[in-house]
Amino acid sequence: MSRRVKLVLMLTVVLAVAAPGVSAQVTGTIQAIATVAASLNVQGTSSLDFGTVVPGVDLALATTSIEAGEFTIQSGPAGAEVQFAFTLPTELTSGANSLAIAFATTDAAYATDALRTQNPPTAVVNPLITTTANLAADGGMAVWIGGEVSPTAVQAAGDYSGDIEISVTLTGN
Amino acid sequence: MSPRITLLLVAVLLVTSVADSTAQDFDDRSATARVMTVLSVTATQDLNFGKIFGGVPKVMGNDDDDSSAVFSITGEASAGISVQLTLPEYLSLADGSANMTIVFNNSCCSIDTIGTATPSTVVGGFVDIDPRTSPSGVIVGSGGAANLFLGGKVLPSANQKAGAYSGDIVLSVSYNGT
Amino acid sequence: MIRKRELFKLTALIVLAAVTSGVAQTVTGISDLEFGDIFPGVPNTVSKRASSAAEFTVTGTAGAEVTLDFLLPTYVYTTGANMPVLFSATDCAIDSSLVPDQSSPSADNLNPYETITYRLGAGGLSVWLGGRVIPGLVQKSGNYTATIRLTVTYTGN
Question: Cys-Cys crosslink for A107: which of A58, A103, C50, C57, Cβ 3.0 to 4.6 Å?
Answer without folding.
Answer: A103
